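Hi there,

I know you've been waiting on this one. I reran it after we fixed the sequence typo, so this is the corrected version. Both the input and the resulting structure follow.
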Amino acid sequence: MDIRNTNALILAGGQGKRLRSDLPKTMAEILSKPIISWITDSFSEAGIKNICIVTGYAKEYLEKYAEGRFRTVFQSERLGTGHAVMTAADWLKENPGGNTLIYNGDAPFVDPETLIKSLEFHASKNNAATVLSAEIPDPYGYGRIIRDDTGVSAIREQKDCTADEAKIHEINSGCFWFKTDELLKALPKLTRNNSQGEYYLTDTIEILKAEGKRVDAYIAENPDIVLSANDRKGMLELNEIARKRVIDKHLENGVEFVCTDGIIISPEVKIAAGAKILPGCILKGCTEIGKNSVIGPNCQLCDTVVGERSSLNNVYANGSKVGSDCNIGPFVQLRPGTVIDDSVHVGDFVEIKNSTVGKGTSVSHFNYVGDSDVGKNVNFGCGSLTANYDGTNKFRTEIGDNAFIGCNTNLVAPVKVGNAAYTAAGSTVTKDVPDGALAIERGEQKIREGYAEKKLSRHLEKGKKFI
């Protein structure tokens, strides 16, 4: 069996009215990751590359998601799961032979192991169709697996179940393996003779059985593959399930959590053993945390890499890189393109954007560093900033190794401060500063006696002196 010789069709045309969203249901997020992405990532990890998505409501979102990676077909009418697969019949005909996976696009927790094992089962039994099923304590609302001596005889939707069938605890996950050619033969035979007046994909089971084809069910070890949500309460429950699963995985890998309150970690995030995640942290995207680093409390990191033994406290970072042995925060924003080398200190109320900061540099407090290249062992005084934008164009600032930027210095780009150069406190530097020099740009101080009393006289009581 070669899993590469497979197709996967995701049924994602639903609106999810009770979510009250302008997005398709499959674009709803779990741990900041769309449901559809959970599914396609599992498919890809299992080795399934030929993927098609059936779109419907607000199709433009799914088409944008799929662009350049997956095929899409549009289901113009919502006439059931069977009709959704019929919509993709031409795509199936382009990929004959082998096997096709059909999957409901609102169930995020399918895992690669289940996909591989179920396909192996499907192929070893020479089944025309294999249903992925699960056994759960409360099957209400799910289609029941009806078995006979040869395997599965039918799948009965909740509304069509007899009293005895409703007692069955083995349920349909909405995921099927089909021999592609057998599926194509069965689709034209579907009818709408049911309580919903829809084309049920599950009716293909009885069609195939009536033709003497073998149909069976693979009971998944992971019962979560059946889980989906129809409203915001259900989405919250899915998020809680996913959040716990992700944290449990990191605990098993040696990550420390003293308390999990407010901690949300996307499944792609990588955290090395020995790292500590404190309460209130949100880690998203392709974020990576190095060994023995401490993140939090109250950090939000997206697509950000942090080295080893670094500490981040109340930091918002997006598309940034922090080296090892750094101390960042509190109340720091690292904007996209920021690269911080090892042993850097960034203190409170600092914003850094699209800049490189060299090893051992200290940007202590109330600073803005934008579009700058900062060398090693530089010290920024309080309130210093790089003025990188003139209203039309952005320019870069260069600061050499061992430079000292005095308090309340404005570096107006494009400008270069040389190695071991100094700027005096309160200076606005518009010209390059040579290596080892001191730049002073201040106006002459003038004293005007009595200015305050004259300025504020209208606010003072008549006859009362200011001092």
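Quick highlight: The radius of gyration is 31 Å.

Best,
R. S.
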